[in-house]
Design brief:
alpha+beta; eight-stranded antiparallel β-sheet; five-stranded antiparallel β-sheet; 25% helix; globular
């Protein structure tokens, strides 16, 4: 008992030293939690650009730790799947933080809409999935009004919109008729085993698996845990002059109203209202953020 007491005292003293604090912080970042800033509007309105999250890195196993910012791995990939400890992968409907397959140093956040073996397609901007468990499972787990038959196959129509109110389409950009084909017509495809089909909740402004393919387990990092800060800091040019999939016309219209969003008047109004802290979002979990909608 005395040895345990002495060990605990030593551990306490070590944790209060500069070295101990650094070691504890690094262990937390490497294995348990990491700060993450939402880089685009692809998950609006569930997550907004300028949201700062703590990511739960142990949600799907323990990924191989990387040095923050440099994104250099600090341990070998013993399992060959990007994780020191393997776990169950994302489920349908989960919001997931992952490494962009074409540039693994970049982190993306999207919703997992289908898993390995599932069918995926879009028809007239409507998402359909065909869960791999089969027709009996589909009929037992989804409402009748969600089911549609294509040929001899049963598909589920828009399986996530009722539960997740942040999933949205941009009627304004639809009217412009300039969207890439993949946003309104895609597939059908079957997701490869061990992979996850990701889509942004802001369906008309999301570069996702429709464009660059499904995500393998090795790139899965974790799941949003809670919001620690949120603010609007983008400049007018960042909002209005990005590519089609990154423009945020809805945000401009919300601020400028009937003013032409391309005008200097709208630009001046936007710049005047920048740097607003979104106090109502701070401290909330993902479920709490969805309840705001």
């Amino acid at each position: 008992m005395e040895k345990v007491k002495k060990a605990l005292i030593k551990l306490y003293r070590f944790s209060n030293s500069w070295t101990g604090t650094i070691v504890i912080v690094l262990l937390a970042i490497f294995f348990f939690a990491q700060a993450f800033k939402i880089p685009s509007g692809s998950m609006k309105s569930t997550l907004l650009e300028g949201d700062h999250l703590i990511v739960k890195k142990f949600a799907y196993g323990i990924p191989v730790p990387h040095i923050p910012w440099l994104e250099v791995p600090v341990a070998p990939d013993f399992n060959g799947n990007g994780h020191l400890i393997s776990g169950e992968g994302p489920k349908r409907g989960d919001v997931v933080v992952f490494r962009y397959p074409n540039e693994p140093k970049m982190h993306y956040v999207k919703r997992c809409v289908a898993i390995g073996g599932d069918g995926v397609m879009l028809r007239d901007k409507t998402l359909y999935i065909r869960p791999h468990e089969g027709e009996k499972y589909i009929r037992e787990n989804y409402d009748k009004d969600q089911l549609e038959e294509f040929g001899d196959e049963l598909w589920v129509k828009d399986p996530y919109r009722k539960e997740h109110k942040g999933i949205q389409y941009d009627d304004y950009i639809r009217a412009l008729g300039i969207l890439p084909q993949e946003t309104h017509s895609f597939g059908p495809i079957t997701v490869q085993e061990g992979r996850y089909f990701m889509m942004g909740d802001n369906r008309d402004h999301s570069a996702d698996s429709r464009f660059w393919g499904s995500v393998s387990y090795e790139y899965i990092v974790g799941q949003p845990w809670f919001m620690y800060f949120s603010w609007e800091s983008r400049s007018y040019d960042e909002v209005a002059n990005n590519g089609i999939l990154q423009n945020d016309y809805a945000a401009l219209l919300a601020v400028c109203g009937d003013i032409d969003y391309k005008s200097d008047k709208c630009k001046a109004k936007w710049e005047k209202e920048r740097y607003k802290v979104r106090w109502d979002r701070i401290g909330l979990s993902l479920k709490g953020l969805e309840e705001l909608l």
